[in-house]
Each structure stands twice: as structure tokens, then as C-alpha cells.
Design brief:
The structure is a single chain. The chain has 548 residues and is an all-beta fold. It has five domains: 151 residues, Jelly Rolls (Sandwich); 49 residues, no CATH class; 49 residues, no CATH class; 64 residues; 81 residues, Immunoglobulin-like (Sandwich). Helices cover 0% and strands 50% of the residues. The chain is built from no helices and 46 strands. The strands form 13 sheets. Strands 10, 12, 13, 15, 17, 18 and 19 form a seven-stranded antiparallel β-sheet that branches. Strands 1, 4, 5, 7 and 22 form a five-stranded antiparallel β-sheet that branches. A four-stranded antiparallel β-sheet has the order 8-21-11-14, with no helix packed on it. The radius of gyration is 62 Å and the shape is rod-shaped. The relative contact order is 0.10.
């Protein structure tokens, strides 16, 4: 037995262009029995699905799908309606384990066939009347037309019912509301066929009621009509109200009396037409996994409780479709840090600590976060270091350009020498300039603080200075700043001391009359000089003197 659901498309007054409306150009209606206006045939019905049961049980199975949104449709597995699964609104579908798509395929019906009615006999104004019958075949009611004998210009008022459980309405004065309205058209244009789309199955008890402007066109009943070659009895039925003011309620039937004449059109051989896809969802259980990390002392809701320790936790949930959802979380913990550190800068430098650039020694605190968001506190002790004290002196005498390379004496050791003649920590007179050579020594300590000192090395081209023939002579101190002493050997009682600058120019000359003589050189500029000592017999000795 077919179960009926919500009102069809027609109830909402929707006309999808399924059946052509009659225009003012159509022939006028004649006052005659069974009069109707021409209509366009082969009108297509586009299904509007309102489907329940499209979400199947979790994991799949068999379920019932019910189309309660329109009429004139069949269930099919393809959009063309080739493989029909059900000819009714209800489809028991399955077993199925995966999502799929079904189709509600609309039927193309015509208004070529209409039911015969008895001739008009009289008018009745007021309470609406009609008739009920039992459908002899499956069909689609495609339209209605109220004959014009009672009220040629009045608007049409029609309602169609299907009684539940295929049970006719009771005899007056008992009434029933055990039915489903298939469509209600109030104040419908006088000269238009009422387009409809009502699916009727064999055995359905159908009630049709209507008039024009609340004036019924009466004819004798019961009346035996014809549907697709089958004799059908139309029995009087109605309600005790005007249909213009209220839809059908408290409906009854009477064995005799008149029916209100309402003609209807039908099609018993509709063909597949437009289709509407219906997505069938088969939800599946879900198994998922993830990782999470918390800081020491924090907690997270896992496994039904707040967790503070690393581990694997399982949550059993339910999806929106009611399927089990198992989620496994691997929890890790990350500690917060308290770090003590140190830093060192040179006097005059700065370093970013405690949110600012610092130049003085002390403790500074920075509050940071780890990559995972945990607190990290760093306390830094800052030390400010003085620059190292660096010393560097010259070798104490003029150096011959022909002399071998020698180590220099910068302190502390381990610094860097720069200047002419420098190679590492060695000074090579042959690679330096003749005369004064300024050498710079830079020492950098472990902190990165650097100290600097410099010295001047004097280089003399000794190839131009002859061999000494006067031995036993000494000149000191060397270097000297204001006075030098010349000591002659015991066998020499007098001589001459001559001073030349680095360019060979004579700058001083002194007569030596004693074995030990003191010479004043404070007026000389700092630099390298040659002191030549000659005796009275032509012997000589030369000394390089550094004047400070």
C-alpha cells in the first residue's frame, strides 16, 4: 500500500511551465456539457525532490528513501530513467557501502485524456460539492477544468484530495479529515485550465471538489464515468462550507444526490523526462592521529581528562553522521628554561640585554619563549673589559740593511705587526726602507678588546761605511738624547769627532783632547747619525748613533 507524504508541488501554486496556460487567443468556451478549452499536450514535469533517508547508517547497509516533494517521478540509477528502481515515492535501496547518486526522474504527461461528466442539470450556491472515486489504474492527474454552465465568468475554485489508507469518506452526517490535500486553487482565472501534477496509484481513493465563484454546476449522481477504458463511479461528496473561504475539512459522502461537475485530465502512460540527482551519503568510521606538545606545568584535554604527562591518549568520538571517530594523540612535554649566561664587552661598546643596549657591568634578565611556546628566562652577567696595555720598543740601535731578520719585542706576545719589513713577528731590514720605518703592534685579548703601540726602526746602508782602523774607541750611550761620551783607547791622546746625519751631511765637529770626552747633541733632531772618530795619524772608527 502506498504511503503519502507532504503536499505536492502543486500545493505551493508553482507552475514550472509543465503544462501550457491557455491564453486569450484560445477559442471561447461554449455552454455545453463537458466543455473544456484546448491545452498543450506532452508537458514535462521537473521533479523537485524532498528526500528523507539520503544519509545511510554508518558503514553502509540498506535504507528507505522517500520522495515527498513532488509527483510524477520514478527512482532510477541513471539520469535518463533507463534503469528504474522504483515506480513509487518509496525506494528500499541497498546494501550499499559507498557514496552514490540516484535520480528522481520526472514523467512527461499530456492533457489529451479527460474524464466524461454528466450534463449540467442545475446550479447550487454556497457549500462546495464534488465527488470521490477509486482509481482503476496508475495515472497522473495533469489538470482541472470547471465547466461554465453555473457561472460563465466566475473564477475557478478546485481542491483535490487523496484519502488515507484508500478509505472513502464516511456517509453524512459523519465526517473525516483523514486525507492529504494534493492541491488547492482558489480564484483561478475563468478561462485557463488548472495545470496539475498529481500521482495516483491503483486503488487510491481520490476526492475532487470545485465550482466557479462558489456556484456549483450540479449533475445527477452516482455517475459511472470512464478512465482509460475502465468504468469508474463518481459518488457525491463535499463539506458544509464555501471552498473560497476554507480548504476541505470535515468531508463526507452521500449515496444519492448531485455531484459538482469538475472535469480532470490524466495520463496513464507518462515517459521519463527531466531528472534531479539525489546524493546518497554512506558515512564511514574515522580513525585519525595527531601530535601535541605542552609546556611543563600545563595541561591539555585528552582521553577524557586533562593530561600533564607525555604519552599516547585515545578519544572515542562520534561524527556528525553518528559514526565512531577514534582519534589518537601523541603528547610530548617541553620544559621551561632558566638559563644563566655571561657576556663580555670592551669599554665603549654595547650589547642588547634586558630589552635595551647595555654599556655597564651587571646582571640583566630576558624573558623569552621556546619554539613550542614555553617560558625561557635568561639571566646574563655582563662584564666590561678594559683595553689591554701594549708595549713595543725599537731594537735600540741603527740596523744595517744587510743584517739578518730578527724577532720583534711587542708585549703581550701574540699580537699582529704591520709596517715595512714586517713578516709575521719578524723584522727584515733588507725589505724595509733605508731610514726610519714605523712599525705598529696590535694585541687583541680573548674578549676582543685591542691595544696598540708603535716603534720606529732605523735602517742604515752599511755597504757605504768602511772598516774601522781605529780600534778600542767606544761611543755611549746609544741611543742618546742630549750628551754622548767618546772614550779613546789609551794610546790615543787626541782626535776629532764628526757627526753626519742620515743623508751624509756634517752636522757637528768636536776636537777630542782627552781620553774621555763629552759631546753635547741636544740641539740635534731625533734620528740616525754617524759618528766618525779620527786620530792624528789617519786612523778612524765609525759608529751609528740614534738621537732620541
Amino acid at each position: 500500500m502506498k504511503t503519502r507524504y507532504a503536499t505536492l508541488l502543486c500545493v505551493f501554486g508553482l507552475s514550472l511551465g509543465a503544462f501550457a496556460q491557455v491564453s486569450s487567443d484560445d477559442p471561447t468556451v461554449q455552454n455545453q456539457s463537458n466543455s473544456k478549452i484546448p491545452v498543450e499536450s506532452n508537458a514535462q514535469i521537473t521533479p523537485l525532490s524532498s528526500v528523507t533517508g539520503e544519509v545511510f547508517p554508518c558503514g553502509g547497509g540498506t535504507d528507505t528513501l522517500i520522495n515527498n516533494g513532488t509527483c510524477g517521478t520514478v527512482w532510477a540509477s541513471d539520469s535518463l530513467g533507463v534503469n528504474i528502481l522504483s515506480l513509487t515515492d518509496t525506494l528500499v535501496f541497498g546494501p550499499v557501502t559507498a557514496d552514490t547518486t540516484l535520480y528522481l526522474v520526472g514523467l512527461q504527461g499530456t492533457q489529451n485524456a479527460s474524464v466524461p461528466l454528466p450534463a449540467h442539470s442545475s446550479n447550487f450556491s454556497g457549500n462546495v460539492r464534488g465527488y470521490w472515486f477509486t482509481a482503476p489504474v496508475d495515472m497522473i492527474i495533469t489538470g482541472f477544468w470547471v465547466p461554465t454552465e453555473a457561472n460563465p465568468t466566475g473564477s475557478q475554485i478546485v481542491e483535490c484530495l487523496i484519502f488515507n489508507n484508500q478509505t472513502p469518506p464516511p456517509l453524512w452526517s459523519t465526517t473525516t479529515n483523514d486525507f492529504v490535500s494534493q492541491g488547492y486553487w482558489n480564484n483561478y482565472p475563468a478561462n485557463d485550465t488548472i495545470d496539475a501534477c498529481i500521482q495516483v496509484l491503483t486503488g487510491d481513493v481520490v476526492g475532487i471538489y470545485g465550482n466557479r465563484g462558489d456556484v456549483n454546476s450540479y449533475a445527477g449522481a452516482p455517475y459511472v464515468s470512464d478512465i482509460d477504458g475502465n468504468a469508474v463511479t463518481f459518488t457525491r461528496s463535499g463539506m458544509q462550507q464555501n471552498l473560497s473561504g476554507s480548504q476541505m475539512n470535515n468531508v463526507f459522502q452521500e449515496a444519492g444526490g448531485s455531484i459538482s461537475r469538475v472535469e480532470f485530465f490524466y495520463d496513464v502512460n507518462p515517459t521519463p523526462g527531466a531528472s534531479t540527482p539525489v546524493n546518497v551519503i554512506v558515512p564511514q568510521p574515522e580513525v585519525t592521529a595527531s601530535n601535541a606538545t605542552i609546556c611543563d606545568g600545563d595541561s591539555i584535554l585528552l582521553g577524557g581528562a586533562y593530561q600533564t604527562m607525555a604519552g599516547v591518549y585515545v578519544d572515542s568520538l562520534t561524527t556528525s553522521f553518528g559514526c565512531d571517530s577514534i582519534h589518537t594523540t601523541t603528547l610530548s612535554t617541553d620544559q621551561s628554561y632558566f638559563i644563566q649566561a655571561s657576556a663580555n664587552i670592551c669599554i665603549g661598546d654595547s650589547i642588547l640585554l634586558g630589552g635595551a643596549y647595555q654599556t655597564t657591568a651587571g646582571f640583566y634578565t630576558d624573558s623569552l619563549q621556546t619554539a613550542l611556546g614555553c617560558d625561557s628566562t635568561i639571566v646574563t652577567f655582563l662584564d666590561v673589559t678594559s683595553f689591554p696595555v701594549v708595549t713595543f720598543t725599537n731594537p735600540g740601535d741603527t740596523v744595517c740593511a744587510q743584517a739578518s731578520a730578527f724577532s720583534m719585542n711587542g708585549a703581550p706576545a701574540g699580537g699582529v705587526y704591520t709596517g715595512n719589513g714586517v713578516s709575521g713577528d719578524m723584522f727584515d731590514p733588507s725589505a724595509a726602507n733605508v731610514g726610519a720605518n714605523d712599525i705598529i703592534y696590535v694585541y687583541t685579548d680573548s674578549v676582543g678588546c685591542a691595544g696598540t703601540d708603535s716603534a720606529t726602526f732605523y735602517v742604515q746602508d752599511c755597504a757605504s761605511i768602511g772598516e774601522a782602523t781605529l780600534v778600542g774607541v767606544s761611543v755611549y750611550p746609544n741611543p742618546a738624547s742630549s750628551i754622548i761620551t767618546v772614550a779613546l783607547p789609551d794610546h790615543v791622546s787626541e782626535g776629532v769627532a764628526v757627526l753626519y746625519d742620515a743623508n751624509g751631511r756634517l752636522v757637528q765637529s768636536h776636537i777630542l783632547t782627552e781620553t774621555i770626552s763629552t759631546l753635547e747633541i741636544s740641539s740635534l733632531s731625533a734620528g740616525v747619525y754617524v759618528v766618525e772618530i779620527n786620530n792624528t795619524i789617519g786612523q778612524s772608527a765609525k759608529f751609528r748613533l740614534i738621537k732620541k
